[in-house]
Amino acid sequence: MLEKKVEAVSALLKSISHPLRLKILCLLQDGEMTVGDIREQVETTNANVSQHLTILRNQGIVESRKDANFIYNRIADKRVVKLMGTLQALFC
Hints:
By secondary structure, the chain is an alpha+beta fold. It has one domain (3-91): Winged helix-like DNA-binding domain superfamily/Winged helix DNA-binding domain (Arc Repressor Mutant, subunit A, Orthogonal Bundle).
């Protein structure tokens, strides 16, 4: 494996390794969600969810779109969807 690929995979795994970010990604596997929708499911504050989404967005894992007053978040990288499915199958 090339050094750049190793670094990229390492950065991705670091980004998703936090328990709350894993929960967020599990939720987003089924489709788009707003911060409020995610907050209700993970039982934390909007600010906390937003901070974790920013980390995921900065790594290119999550992207968002605005529709009226709502911002919808979704997994941007289909490889992450596949990875989350594999993790669920192995550990859930």
